[in-house]
Design goal:
With 385 residues, the chain is α/β, with parallel strands linked by helices. The chain folds into two domains: 111 residues, no CATH class; 233 residues, Spore Coat Polysaccharide Biosynthesis Protein SpsA, Chain A. The chain is built from 13 helices and twelve strands. A seven-stranded mixed sheet has the order 3-2-1-4-8-6-9, with helices on both faces. A three-stranded mixed sheet has the order 5-10-7. Helix 2 links the parallel strand 1 and strand 2. The protein starts with a helix and ends in a 7-residue tail after the last strand. The mean pLDDT is 89.
Length: 385
């Protein structure tokens, strides 16, 4: 009798997780369809005033490739605001040299303050936003490079006056070694969950290294500092914009897809996921928090069910549902955005299996409130209940 009850419960939850992921798939494909139907004409000038914002701390090694990609943009009539956030290396000097090269269109600021009760970037992003002249603000990170038509192809989304926030795709280079190649699989996969929720009209998360927002939206919500303490201010911005009645769109175009670098060490990767998990697991929006917890807690249970299934074979339905569901999202991410599709698809199953175990581990750390380390400091995740 007990085994029959467990069987029905396991089958019910397995079915629910598959249904949730099928809904996510619909969200991803809705974004793709919306871009396929949207027509834009090439233009040598931007219809809006645009500012690109980069906040960096100790990024002297990563800034030169980013600067080169900004210099090669297909349009050049946009402002660039660079902020050095308490950097101890040559970051500020590189920014100043870049500004001297490009004159008044580049503005360099330095922040030396540490503000309590705010996340690591909220205060500095408000400094950058205040200095921006553009109606449209495009955010990226120092460890990214952007494609040639990035600025040109992102801003037409705002021709719809109801669009307040847009975020684009991300990619990582395929390199030698499992550790780096796993990240090239991991981050675009996570991004598809962000894309799915936005496509379903329930935006709850995004990555801030390829993020665009109307300056008016940020001003309307009172700036990043008014989002409350958060380690994921980008996701909080998207949620706040949606709550204020703005549309949050996803760019599925590969010519707006930025490329970022992999973490150097496993500890860095775990800390990165702790920041992301903490932001979602303790998200201020109840619906976002509930949906994320359902998926991640199911993921943990399904991983733990594997050894138990040796004695109770029907429990294999739990990890099987996780593998099918997450594998489906990974498959879509590869088909839509990976140029090396054959390499990617050959490794889909083992990388998905490792993703399940790794993400279950990172989520457990988040549940136990393990503080992530970022830029040399431990940060406590926000706690909304």
């Amino acid at each position: 009798m007990i085994q029959e009850i467990l069987l029905y419960i396991s089958a019910a939850f397995a079915g629910m997780i598959v249904i949730v992921h099928l809904a996510c798939l619909i969200g991803v494909l809705r974004n793709r369809l919306a871009d396929a139907l949207r027509k834009t004409a090439a233009s040598s000038r931007l219809p809006f005033t645009v500012t690109v914002i980069v906040v960096a701390k100790d990024e002297e090694e990563n800034l030169p490739p980013l600067f080169a990609s900004l210099e090669s943009q297909s349009v050049q009539d946009f402002q660039i605001v660079l902020v050095s956030d308490r950097s101890q290396d040559g970051t500020l000097d590189l920014m100043k040299a870049f500004a001297r090269k490009h004159g008044e269109r580049v503005k360099v600021l330095e922040s030396t303050e540490t503000v309590e009760n705010l996340g690591p970037k909220q205060f500095v992003l408000d400094i950058a936003t205040a200095a921006a002249r553009g109606e449209i603000l495009i955010f990226t990170d120092a460890d990214c490079t952007v494609p040639r038509q990035w600025v040109e192809k992102l801003q037409p989304y705002f021709e719809d006056p109801q669009v307040g926030v847009v975020f684009g795709q991300i990619s990582l280079k395929k390199e030698k070694g499992f550790f780096r190649n796993f990240q090239a699989f991991d981050q675009p996969l996570i991004h598809q969950y962000n894309s799915a929720t936005a496509g379903l009209g329930m935006p709850g998360s995004c990555f801030g290294n390829n993020l665009v927002a109307r300056k008016a939206v940020i001003q309307q919500i009172g700036g990043f500092r008014n989002l409350g303490y958060t380690l994921t201010e980008d996701a909080a911005l998207a949620t706040a914009a949606a709550k204020s009645g703005w549309k949050v769109r996803v760019s599925t175009r590969t010519d707006t897809m930025i490329e970022t670098v992999a973490q150097e060490h496993w500890q860095d990767l775990v800390n990165q996921h702790l920041r992301w998990n903490g932001g979602a697991f303790y998200h201020e929006d109840f619906a976002t928090r509930f949906a994320y917890r359902f998926i991640t807690l199911y993921l943990i249970v399904s991983v733990l069910a594997v050894p138990a299934a040796v004695f109770l074979p029907f429990l294999f339905v739990l990890p099987a549902a996780s593998l099918i569901s997450v594998g489906l999202m990974a498959f879509i991410a590869g088909v839509l955005y990976r140029p090396d599709k054959s390499w990617y698809l050959l490794r889909l199953v083992p990388y998905t299996c490792f993703f399940l175990v790794f993400y279950a581990f990172a989520t457990l750390l988040s549940i136990f409130q393990v503080p992530p380390r970022w830029k040399g400091k431990r940060w406590q995740p926000a706690h909304h209940e």
